[in-house]
Amino acid sequence: MDPGALPPEQTGPAAWHGPQMAARSDWIGTLDPADLAELEAAMRRFLAAGDDPARIGQMTAAQFPLPRLAPRLAALRQELLHGRGFALLRRLPVERYSMVQAATLFMGLGVHLGAPRSQNAQGHVLGHVCDLGLSSADPNVRIYQTRERQTFHTDSCDLVGLLCLRAAPRGGDSLLVSALTLFNELRRTHPDLAVRLLRPMAHDRRGEVPAGAQPFFMIPVFSWHAGALTVFYQRQYFDSAQRFAQAPRLTPADVAALDAFDALANDPRLNFAMRLAPGDLQFVHNHVLLHDRTAFDDAPEPAQRRHLLRLWLAAPGARELPPAFAARYGALTVGDRGGIVVPGTRLTVPLAPV
Fold it and tell me: How far does CA 206 lie from the centroid of its chain?
């Protein structure tokens, strides 16, 4: 592609700059006492029929009725998919819930936004984000299982949700940046590098390989499809795919483009940080934003260590995705796509980190 044929400058509410967004508060909502009463009533009804983790993982919106909150959640989904691309809800009083109650409440909120998807080869539709004492130097470890800085990335789903159960004493802050703004900056300053990011590169599956697939897949950082710019990014996995002899080599121009992308994502003129407190819920649209987490120091007592729950959601009303996403998402059907499924995967909700 010639630099002159790049997609147009991206506009709209998701093409924001971090400092301006940090100065606003319209992306912060609050769960009031009536909201909490409705949620807890739905949770009690659901668990009265059984608290089997598999049943929680198969929950539908009809099984968790929220007549008061459902219209607000539908509006939130529209804001995520077609507005600024993220939102924060405060505050679910997690300190008064058991793990099965917190998991049920989070899943109940989530199924009103989309269909939960498997987040790993074990089929976990509810993820635990905490330090398992692992290192990303192991090519089969996912970075959320460590206390390391995650770096800016996207997940393999339309929407990602986090519920903070406990925060770290130091660090672990959430960072967001607009991929549309990153593209605009590259388009303006380095159009030749922007061109490279519209070409497919090898991306490591980190040991989570579907039947008949290679241990890596090909996908561009930016895709221009059906009039929309979509991002897919995890730098470490583009780099680690080079361990496979059959993966196409990253050229010096590719590396320069990835380096420029990283430099812009880490530019404080573009990104901003928020600290999730216990009970806060964050939702992010993966196709237009990248998210990150700073490194953290954990509490010495296991019961006090940083711990978040995570949902990957396939959202009704989401955008059409380009064919390249099929290698990672499987089917591209809106509302029924994304996640990680390998031979033997069985969907489940673990109630403890594994």
Answer: 17
